[in-house]
Structures are given as C-alpha cells and as structure tokens.
C-alpha cells in the first residue's frame, strides 16, 4: 500500500484580496441590476462575501453590501464584542438594543448611503421574519430578491476556487479508492 501524501500542503487559503474581489463583483452586479444595497444574514452567503461565519439566531444580524463603501454590519448590541472579533476593523458595525428595531437600523444604513428610498436586495437565505420586519419598519425601501447578485457571483468560479474544487475532487476519489 502506497503511503498517502499531504495533498493540501502549500495550498493558500482565501485572503482579503479574494473577498474584496467578490465584493467588487457584487457591486458591479448591484449596479447592473439597479440595487442600492444587498442585505445578507448568517449562512453561506455571509461567509462567501465576508469570511464571517456566524450562527443563525432568532435575532437580526448581517451585513449591508453596497455600491459605495465596505459592508456595514447590523448586529445585536449584546453580541457586539464577539462580532467585533470577526468583522474587519475597517468595517462599520452598528448595533441595536433589544427594545429597538434592527429593521429601522438597516433603513438608517441605506439613508446614510444616500438611498433612503432605494432598492435593497435581500439575500435568498434571509429568513422571512426579517423581510416582514423590513416591510413594516422600513416601508420607504423597495425590497427585492437579491439572488441575482449572490448567485451571479457564486455561479462563476475564480481560478483559485476551481483549483480548490479540483483538489477536493482528487482527495475524495483517493479516499474512496483507499477505502475500498
């Protein structure tokens, strides 16, 4: 039996430049689709665009991707310290207290971006209570499906992503061969 080698030695993980490239592509798609922002909450889209992995909770949190600046984060105040450990220092974090509306806070982000009556894409994995809350507490915003941006970015892989997929495929095939 042949000795197995470390097939991931030398593989470079995604770096800040990779996430910035993803955000730049999202900005281009938002401009093409006339979206002023995109709200993404916990899950794979948040990780894909920001490298922030946070559990899904019953509280509203996430990032407003936009065409003008770096992501602006909306987070429950009592978890702000933990959030700050994950969010890059050069990105803004806005918090809401339990008696406040996170949806009004998101509307405030859009207002500060100069698009108080703008179009906000909602990431496809965003839970419905957030959408309904936005409709009630931020009626000036037009809410639309943000999948055109998330799927538009994730569907076409970069060379680095293709190399990762190829390596994962080779490792999986080897595992099956060795297992059998």
Task: Walk me through the topology.
Layout: H1 16-32, E1 37-40, H2 44-50, E2 62-66, E3 72-76, H3 80-86, E4 92-96, H4 102-112, E5 119-122, H5 128-137, E6 142-145, H6 147-155, H7 159-179
Parallel strand pairs: 1-5, 3-4, 5-6
Antiparallel strand pairs: 1-2, 2-3
Write a concise keyword list for the protein shown above:
180 residues, alpha/beta, 6 strands
Short description:
The chain is an alpha/beta fold and 180 residues long. Helix content is 46%, strand content 15%.
Mean pLDDT rating? 93
Indicate the structural class.
alpha/beta
Morphology: elongated
Distance between the termini: 12 Å
Helix content: 40-55%
Q: Total number of helical segments?
A: 7
User: Runs with pLDDT <50, length 5+?
Assistant: none
Beta-strand percent range:
15-25%
**Order of SSEs:** HEHEEHEHEHEHH
DSSP summary, beta strand count: 6
Radius of gyration: 19 Å
Query: How would you characterize the largest beta sheet?
Result: 6 strands, mixed
Question: Strand arrangement, largest sheet?
Answer: 4-3-2-1-5-6
What does this entry look like structurally?
It is a single chain. The protein is built from seven helices and six strands; from the N terminus they run H-E-H-E-E-H-E-H-E-H-E-H-H. Helix 5 links the parallel strand 5 and strand 6. The protein is elongated and about 60 Å long. The chain starts with 15 loop residues before the first helix and ends with a helix.
């Amino acid at each position: 039996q042949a000795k197995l080698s470390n097939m991931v030695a030398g593989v470079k993980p995604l770096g800040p430049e990779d996430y910035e490239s993803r955000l730049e592509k999202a900005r281009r798609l938002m401009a093409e689709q006339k979206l002023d922002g995109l709200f993404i909450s916990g899950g794979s889209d948040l990780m894909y665009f920001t490298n922030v992995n946070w559990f899904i909770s019953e509280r509203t949190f996430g990032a407003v991707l936009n065409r003008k600046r770096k992501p602006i984060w909306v987070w429950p105040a009592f978890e702000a310290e933990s959030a700050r450990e994950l969010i890059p220092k050069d990105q803004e974090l806005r918090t809401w207290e339990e008696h406040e509306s996170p949806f009004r806070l998101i509307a405030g982000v859009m207002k500060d971006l100069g698009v108080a009556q703008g179009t906000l894409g909602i990431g496809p994995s965003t839970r419905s209570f957030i959408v309904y809350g936005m409709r009630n507490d931020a009626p000036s915003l037009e809410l639309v499906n943000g999948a055109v941006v998330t799927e538009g970015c994730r569907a076409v892989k970069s060379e680095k992503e293709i190399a990762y997929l190829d390596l994962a495929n080779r490792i999986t095939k080897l595992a099956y061969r060795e297992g059998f």
